Amino acid sequence: MYMSPEQIQAHAVDRRSDVYSFGAVLYFLFTGVEPFAGRDLQEIMMKHLQGRPVPPHQLDPTLPRSLSDAILRALAQDRDQRFQSARDLASALSLSAEAPAAGASGSGARSAS
How many whole angstroms separate alpha carbon 57 and alpha carbon 65? Predict the structure, then answer.
């Protein structure tokens, strides 16, 4: 389920609801698990309202911390804490693609010997 907390509560939605839903998709794509799991739909909805997902970099230590942070920000329960637009999220994802993977050492340049 990829509904934002405001959708679950039948509040008005805007582009930040889409950012949340896309964050849930990104979470699944990069970790292979849903951000919130449960026995039934009610339990999953409650987790979307009250829970915090495990940071993606804890599930896959090779993920850059900046990518993990961007996904978690997209999944913020408070829509004012999320990226305010898909463009803002895309910028953060682009920057994270340039970041070294967690556990990477050095600058990636090899010395000529």
Answer: 6
> Are 50 and 67 within 8 A, CB to CB?
no
| Residue range 18-76, pLDDT digits in tens | 999 999 999 999 999 999 999 999 999 999 999 999 999 999 999 999 999 999 999 99
SS (H, E, C) the chain: CCCCHHHHCCCCCCHHHHHHHHHHHHHHHHHCCCCCCCCCHHHHHHHHHHCCCCCHHHHCCCCCHHHHHHHHHHCCCCHHHCCCCHHHHHHHHHHHHHCCCCCCCCCCCCCCC
Angle 22-35-85 from CA coordinates, rounded to 5°: 25
**Cα distances (Å, whole numbers) of residue 70 to 43, 109, 112:** 25, 27, 36
- CA atoms of 16 and 71, how far apart (whole Å): 13
User: In this structure, what token pair is assigned to residue 86?
Assistant: 């898909």
CA–CA gap between residue 2 and residue 85 (Å, rounded): 17
